Amino acid sequence: MSESSSRQRLDTPRTSRRLFTVDPEAVGRFSESIARYLGTGRYLAWQTIIVIVWIALNLFAVSWQWDPYPFILLNLAFSTQAAYAAPLILLAQNRQENRDRVSLDEDRRRAEQTKADTEFLARELASLRLAVGEVATRDYLRRELEEIRELLESLQYDAGTKPKKDKAKKARTGTDPAIDPLTDEVSS
């Protein structure tokens, strides 16, 4: 048992023995900042100036020639730059793709919610239209009341009594503004 206690058991995971831990989010932010700078005109201008100065000094300043004509050291610098720039740009693109995916999912969810809300409101509007179609309007009530009044007048005329002209008749004609036209009552 002493030998198994010195080694870890197989059913437990091994603990990490890293010397240092790297925050992937910090590395991603750093790589995005470098990738953004590599894509600017300022970077291209500085790189062009450095290359022109490098070549000019190695061609014309004989005492300062550290990289003669085939410019092998300059090619090595470009190769090293490309070897680091490409993965940094790919890392920045992957992070942007992840952000785009999250944004797209959020937009899709919001669009589905908007569609559901719109369909609900359309159903509510349709039910309100049906309900309003069944509600008696003021014109409908006025017409029905007028027909009842005319029927009562004709019944009174047939019974031999002459109907009285009252304030309700004036209200229908609009001569007395103190009478409510809907209920034919005198308002105080």
Automatic annotation (TrEMBL):
Segments traversing the membrane: 43-66, 72-92
Coiled-coil ranges from the UniProt annotation: none
Keyword Transmembrane helix assigned: yes
Region annotation Disordered: where it falls in the sequence: 161-188
Residue ranges, compositional bias (Basic residues): 162-172
UniProt keywords, alphabetically: Membrane, Transmembrane, Transmembrane helix
Keyword Transmembrane helix: yes
Protein name: Membrane protein
Protein species of origin: Mycolicibacterium sarraceniae
